[in-house]
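Need a sequence for this fold. Nothing fancy.
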């Protein structure tokens, strides 16, 4: 199993399939985009599936989530999902996406065995969407949500980041939209993972502020029906339930002590945390002929070095060199 020095067991594997994206969200990258990883540095489909298989069959991984960049840009995505769901024991397989192209791909992905999707949606206002993402693609995202639900990729979860003075006035509208359509909404505190390194704590809309905004229109009570465990979101019943809304307070209420996640980047690096400054290279070892036993032991050794927490509140904290798009959520 993947056990770190603090006794935490990593069972949730986040796999980035590309660092490329078709949006330019301000909290992730500049309008002009980034220098993408050269294709030879990226894991091939077979390499991705091999490492995932080692994680599932040898190291106790029970959940695999494919991310980007934007994973729908990966041409072999459906095949990767199909091969992942064929593993034994079968892991739960999900996808985090911006939703562009999901109207076309939801059906094939469901047929491949994908269990559910998380879709990023920060606004319902077309002008605000363009301001945030530098692209006019809101209608495409909304169509993707409908397609995902109709294809059985449920529950459809929506992730929203509120930006002060830009879309924080939409908190109530976003929740009403999701409640009306059966989507599960989770608000996420903006994290210091932008390529521009422009994040500041003062500009971040905190979990307490989010709950205050929602509390003006809804009665929210902590959901005690299920143990939170390692789940990143604090769940709240809306007007007595059964509908809920989640808040992921990665910055102000870190949940590192129960973390069960490990990450594999698109170029084959193991990362123990979104904010890690160290990586462990499995790609080069694999391409040099390492067998499954060696790769599994390298992976175990990497996780043993996992730190106690992300350290954002520590004066020595340094934002990682890789932005979110190159790490995977």
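Here you go.
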């Amino acid at each position: 199993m993947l056990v770190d020095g603090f006794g935490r067991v990593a069972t949730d594997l986040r796999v980035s399939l590309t660092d490329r994206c078709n949006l330019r969200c301000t909290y992730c990258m500049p309008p002009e985009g980034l220098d993408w990883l050269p294709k030879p540095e990226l894991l091939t489909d077979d390499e991705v599936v091999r490492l995932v298989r080692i994680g599932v069959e040898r190291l106790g991984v029970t959940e695999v989530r494919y991310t980007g960049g934007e994973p729908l840009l990966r041409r072999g995505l459906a095949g990767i999902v199909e091969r992942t769901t064929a593993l034994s024991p079968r892991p739960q397989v999900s996808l985090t996406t911006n939703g562009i192209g999901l109207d076309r791909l939801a059906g094939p992905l469901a047929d491949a065995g994908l269990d559910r999707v998380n879709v990023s949606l920060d606004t319902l206002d077309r002008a605000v969407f363009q301001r945030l993402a530098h692209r006019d693609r809101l209608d495409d995202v909304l169509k993707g949500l409908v397609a995902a639900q109709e294809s059985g990729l449920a529950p459809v979860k929506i992730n929203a980041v509120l930006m002060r003075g830009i879309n924080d006035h939409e908190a109530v509208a976003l929740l009403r939209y999701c409640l009306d359509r059966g989507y599960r909404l989770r608000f996420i505190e903006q994290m210091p993972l932008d390529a521009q390194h422009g994040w500041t704590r003062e500009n971040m809309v905190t979990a307490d502020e989010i709950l205050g905004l929602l509390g003006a229109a809804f009665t929210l009570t902590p959901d005690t029906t299920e143990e939170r465990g390692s789940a990143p979101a604090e769940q709240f019943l809306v007007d007595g339930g059964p509908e809920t809304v989640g808040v992921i307070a990665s910055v102000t209420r870190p949940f590192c002590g129960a973390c069960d996640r490990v990450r594999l980047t698109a170029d084959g690096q193991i990362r123990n945390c979104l904010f890690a400054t160290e990586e462990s290279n499995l790609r080069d070892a694999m391409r040099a002929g390492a067998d499954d036993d060696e790769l599994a032991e390298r992976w175990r050794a990497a996780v043993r070095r996992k730190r106690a927490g992300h350290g954002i509140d520590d004066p020595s904290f340094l934002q990682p060199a890789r932005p979110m798009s190159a790490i995977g959520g």
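For context: The first strand starts at residue 12 and ends at 16.
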